[in-house]
Amino acid sequence: MVALLNDLRFAARSLQKSPGLIAVATLSLALGIAVNVTIFTGIDFVIWHPVSLPVQEQLMQVWSANKERGWSQASVSMPDYLDWRAEAKTIELTAYRGSAFNLSEGDGPERIDATEVTANFFRVLGIAPSHGRSFTETEETTGGNRVALISERLWLDRFAGRSEIIGHPIGLDGEPYVIVGVVPARFKLPQQRSDVWVPARHDGKENRGDHNYRAIGRLVAGFSQDQAQTELDRIAHRLADRYPSTNKGTTTRVITLLDEVVDPTARQAGVISLVAVGFVLLIGCANVANLLLTRGAARSREIAVRAAMGASRGRILGQLLTESLVLAVIGGATGVILSFAGIQWLRSIIPTDAPGVEQVAMSGRALLFALAATVFAGFVFGILPALRATAPDLTGALRDGGRGGTAGVRHGRLRNAFVIGELALALVLLISAGLLIKASFQLQRIDLGFKPDGLLTFRTALSEKDYPDSTRVVAFQDQLTERLRALPAVKAAGAVSQLPLIGRSGIYYAVVGEPEPEEGKWPVALYRTVSPGYFDAIGMRLLSGRDVEPTDRFDAPPVMLVNEAFVQRHWPAGRGLSHRIRFQSGATREIVGVVNDTREFGPDDPSPPMMYFASPQSEQRAMSFVVRAGSDPGALASAVRQAVSSLAPRQPVYAMETMPELIRLETQNQSIMPKLLGVFGAIALLLAVMGVYGVMAYSVSQRTQELGVRRALGAQAGDLIRLVFRLGGKLTLIGSVIGVGLAALSSRALARFLFGVSAFDPAVFGGVTLTLAGAALAASFAPAWRATRVDPLVALRND
After folding, report:
1. Tens of pLDDT along 682-718?
2. What are 297-341's pLDDT values in tens digits?
3. Per-residue pLDDT tens for 541-597?
4. Alpha carbon of 767 to those of 70, 280, 763: distances in Å?
5. Which residues pair with 595 in a beta bridge?
6. I want to staple 721 with a disulfide (CB 3.0 to 4.6 A). Which of 93, 383, 474, 784 is the partner?
7. Would the CA dihedral through 106, 108, 113, 116 be positive or negative?
8. Which DSSP letter does residue 141 get?
9. Inter-axis angle of helices 264-298 and 300-308, nearest 10
10. What is the DSSP letter of 209?
11. Which of 57-61, 256-260, 766-770 has the lowest mean pLDDT?
């Protein structure tokens, strides 16, 4: 312990004499540690620990599956769930589905997220209400009391945290519910936001073909995931035999809740990010190692004297490693401070609905990781310089007299190797970032099939109490559309059940006149309900036939439009007009028009077959309105809210966004990797340039005598500059060749993130390589210029 304290005191005194070394080493290490801690924190909460439930290790997501119908995982029907729950012994099941209500309590109307849950929902998830109670079995069935649990946020915002909240009535969609409990703020089910929970009411008469619930199971003690899967499949097979029309071929899929929440693409992105920040840290370590090699060369006489006086190599090695550890601690502490800002930036680029994103913050695990990374870095950048500095060469070191001539030659190759490694790793990161950024630009240029610029969107949802029949629903939507069109700055307006990129609804169908599909093999298409004028407002093109018209009412023949993908599926060489489509309910509709395809799942997915039903013929209570403005669509927000309020004062307006902003939010995931690797690449480039500059500056200082002699013999400034640049160019060339090879190997891992861009894109590889080479050669300019200022007399006198 005494020896260690002495080493620490000596290291502190020694480093105080080299403020430049401390500054450059601190910057290099701080940047490397900061990006590593930042990414570790994000991955820790978003990928490794996104679920924060007391019994999360026992929780399984249970899906319905049917290979014959093309389901790998689908929601479950209430009747199937009830049978699973009643018969399963290995797993306790609960079910839920997302919902929403118009809240009339407190200040103004508000649309709030809700979840319909079975009575055992909170018990299965291991959550107890912070106030009141959970649901009872009788409240789950139709005929039970209308009760609700509310979130702690809603309790504080709308009810001021009043303790007498239990038993208080709350108006949801105009219906009175009684609050029976408050759900603690710590409860957050991934991918399911909610401020209100109500019982999932059922009467046993629900259709087994309506798959609209999600099931979560908690393994019973002593049973495994595989056992639960086997048992549920056995139950599903019995149900398939009993109800072949709806359940033929249906099985189950049991996966851990963590695997459900974090998809493979996110995991791969996490691994790539960790590797990338590891490269940044290694580049920083190489920078510091070069500094220590330079310092070791200058201290060669000192070390030789200590060795001659009896200090063992191990003792000297320990002293040098202690100095490295002190540097690492300074850099690591600075890096942790910088990582606070890095974590905030990371949170800003992760979608707000990503699982676990609200938890992303500095944690004890992150600090332990920072400590481990600091110790690792201190050893990595310290060990080779220390070994070289303590290499037994007393005679040479003493003969050089401290000038560092022999030491410089001895350490030169290692310093050059470090710089080559820095350039190669930096090039890998820069090329990866270039590929992703180019793919991101490619996505932004994709034609989505509609015109987002100039569009304002918002949603309304009509309650059954305020609008009890279809006539009133359609009348409200017609009147609101007319009022929107009458606004001075509005060019067009319409409504749709679901906007492109937002949600999806599928329906089974058959073409009238074609052979009846086999049981369980009906084709499926996505559908939307649209108002007259919707296609014009959103900027879609009518290719043939007619649009939805105001005369398409309940008393008129049911009609629909389809897109090009639907026509290509059934009539690749013909037209879809006048064909009739039949649905499993027995209803039929006639195709009266064909519109262009739209990218419903995002810019990187082709358009699926789509159907568009006339909204005046379909009772659709929740609709998204699209309003096309002549200039700034955001400026219409106040006028739109006033138009809705004047028509229905208790009707909330929600999800109001301009369409470009909505697209940005929905495609935000696709921009994360380009941003991350772009930042990592920029930091790596900075560190690599610092490394090149350091080596070139040291090389010039070591060749002062040689350069002075050349000047004395008549060498011109250009000759000296070329001489210095020759070394810089050699290092850059070797580093670039190695970096391009490594990038060609590693870019394959990015394949699933690249849209419209080859993993070996020559423009990216060539452009990035030239950029790095130019930056590296630019870093050589200052040392080269300094070489031209060498005074021959001074250089020869110093010798």
Report:
1. 999 998 888 888 777 777 766 666 666 676 666 677 7
2. 656 666 666 666 656 666 667 677 777 888 889 999 999 999 999
3. 999 999 999 999 888 999 999 999 999 999 987 778 889 999 988 889 999 999 999
4. 44, 21, 6
5. 542, 563
6. 784
7. positive
8. B
9. 70
10. T
11. 256-260
List % helix, strand, coil for the chain (3-state, nearest 5): 55, 15, 30
Contact status, residue 377 vs residue 34, Cβ threshold 8 Å: no
Rounded Cα–Cα distance for residues 621 and 356 (Å): 32
Burial of 442 (0-12, 13-18, 19+ CB in 10 A): middle
Q: How far apart are CA 564 and CA 583, in angstroms?
A: 20
Q: For residue 724, give every residue at least 6 positions away whose Cβ sits within 8 Å of its Cβ, in sequence order, or none.
A: 696, 699, 700, 780, 783, 784, 787
Question: Residues for the chain: how many in total?
Answer: 799
Distance CA 457, CA 459 (A): 7
Using a 10 angstrom Cβ sphere, with 0-12 exposed, 13-18 middle and 19 or more buried, the burial of residue 162 is: exposed
Q: What is the DSSP string of 502-570?
A: S---EEEEEETTSPPPPTT---EEEEEEE-TTHHHHHT--EEEE----TT--TTS--EEEEEHHHHHHH
Name the pairing type of β-strands 490-496 and 559-563.
Answer: unpaired
Place of tokens 């407190």: 106
DSSP, res 60 = E
First CA to last CA distance, the chain: 44
Percent of the chain with pLDDT over 70: 87
Name the nearest CA neighbour of 453 among 491, 488, 484: 491
Distance CA 91, CA 228 (A): 6
Distance of CA 617 to the CA centre of its chain: 40
Q: How far apart are CA 739 and CA 780, in angstroms?
A: 19
User: How much is the CA Rg of the chain, to the nearest whole Å?
Assistant: 34
Residue 392 · residue 285 · CB < 8 Å: no
> Dihedral, CA atoms, 387, 390, 391, 393, nearest 10 degrees?
160
State the DSSP code for 76. Answer: B
Distance CA 396, CA 401 (A): 9
Contact (CB, 8 A) for 217 and 60: yes
- Give the pLDDT of residue 743: 93
696 with 779: CB under 8 angstroms? yes
Label each residue of 656-716 as H, E or C.
EEEHHHHHHHHCCHHHHHHHHHHHHHHHHHHHHHHHHHHHHHHHHHHCHHHHHHHHHCCCC
Cα–Cα distance, 523 to 611 (Å, whole number): 13
Could you tell me if 284 and 291 are in contact, meaning their C-beta atoms sit under 8 angstroms apart? no
Write down the pLDDT at residue 405. 46
H-helix segments, 390-454? 394-400, 405-444
Contact 278, 746 (CB under 8 A): no
Say whether pLDDT at 794 is over 60.
no
Separation of alpha carbons 463 and 209, rounded Å: 25
pLDDT of residue 540 exceeding 90, the answer is yes
Side-chain-side CA neighbours of residue 353 (13 Å): 9
Label residue 407 by pLDDT band (50, 70, 90): very low
Using the Cα atoms of residue 740, residue 742, residue 748 and residue 752 in order, give the sign of their dihedral.
negative
Distances (CA, A) of 661 to 325, 622, 656: 48, 21, 10
